[in-house]
Amino acid sequence: MDVLSIASEVYPLVKTGGLADVAGALPGALRHHEVSMRTLVPGYPQVMASFRRGREIAHFHDLFGGPARLLAARTSGLDLIVIDAPHLYDRGGGIYVDDFGQDWLDNWARFAALSSVGAELARGLVEGYRPSIIHAHDWQAALAAAYVRFSGDTETRVVVTIHNLAFQGRFGSDIFAHLRLPAEAFTVDGVEYYGGVGFLKAGLRLADAITTVSPTYAREIRSPGAGMGLEGLLVERGADLHGILNGIDVEAWNPQSDPALAAGFAAANVKKRALNTRALADRFGLDDGPGPLFGLVSRLTWQKGIDLVAENIDWLVSLGGRLAVLGSGEPHLEAAIAQASVRHPGRVGFISGYDEVLSHLVQGGADVMLVPSRFEPCGLTQLYGLRYGAVPLVSRVGGLADTVIDANAAALDAGVATGLQFAPVESVALGEALQRATVLFAQPEVWARMQRRGMKTDVSWQKSAGQYAALYTDLIGEQ
Ligand code: ADP
Ligand code: GLC
Predict the structure, then answer these.
(1) Does the CB atom of residue 356 touch ligand 1 within 6 A?
(2) What CATH topology corresponds to 267-455?
(3) Ligand 1 in contact with 380 (CB < 6 A)?
(4) Residue 440's pLDDT is what?
(5) Which end of the chain, N or C, is surrounded by fewer C-beta atoms within 10 Å?
(6) Residue 88 pLDDT
(7) 334 Cβ contact list (under 8 Å, min separation 6)
């Protein structure tokens, strides 16, 4: 079965968050299910530099304002189709934002182009290649559903995956004329959204199936709040909405062979982690301490509950804990963490920025991974934490609720706890969980059991890849 994945980022070529990890790992995981997945990606400079030779398989004289070529290339185990369109993708700054953090003004064109090329491929643009399914990730690819439907293509099935409803790709109605969609597409049953154009909304309206990245988030988004305005539509499409939990790439994230670690380790010799904890403390300028070393690797944003962490830092330190933060994001949150590191030298360390290698050391060395998100479609850092013996402390929302078993008395007795959960997502509840973690950490046997259990939890793609494969098969069967 041929599936074309459309993704605006894919690990290891270009990544701003978990979407890249998922888009990068899924093709490999699906291979075991007889699904051949190619990935359509924008030709950002990082992507163009990732392969030596691409084979031109199509070209456009005018793809949203300039000439473009499609290149087939293989790299990092991925079978790519790259859109080489310099006027859209060859620029400095971020992949979605400029150097000042502002969305690129032509993002609508950049991602309409991505989506429309996907639909054209499904219609047979390239001889010998005709995917039966398009799997579009997030708003950047969701418009593919509209390009498929309004081109009269009744064969291609489209799956839209929601990784984060907070990003919807909403634009003014003025762009509609440039999308090259028929006038009839501008209705509530098409791309129209509150008078403007909604890329994700269009995808959710028109896709054959919608998935999101955890069962709990799939439920949450049918209600106001988590639904972010799209709850009505999601309720309507309820029968076609599935929650399929993310996995992680257990090869790229393997504590036994990870070159980023000071010492490799497995569940059987989890004590060796201490060498990584020492290395981590060194990197973040932290003293030794009897309490747990809390790690945080995150975008520093409201979604991720970073303000709640900032409010709890003095408390965390008073409990004997230490904190290592790797991340970047909203300036006031960066400032709050930076100030705390000045207030608590040797106890709180902050490295601002994005550092893939260092993120592995945090997972391999921290005693606890903090993930106090206000909402979390799935979350990957708690999964890396489980695999690396960094006990996750998470808010009870979305995929966090689905992947971590709270160390309450019953779960500890039953021997099933893998981490700590707190609710509601408020400062006081987080504070209590930090204290609970500290108390458990002071019981080395209890703690080690929890670490080992987490490390044995199946966080691979195996089960979920099977669910995607079954969904694709169902969709094709419906034809
Ligand atoms: P989201 O996609 O919402 O940011 P996820 O937990 O799904 O959240 O994925 C985040 C991914 O980005 C993880 O792979 C995490 O390790 C990585 N990450 C986040 N911030 C940083 C950082 N500052 N340096 C390195 N990796 C980071
Ligand atoms: C989004 C979500 C995150 C999820 C990731 C990959 O960025 O915020 O929870 O893990 O996508 O699906």
Answers:
(1) yes
(2) Rossmann fold (3.40.50)
(3) yes
(4) 98
(5) C
(6) 98
(7) 300, 328, 352
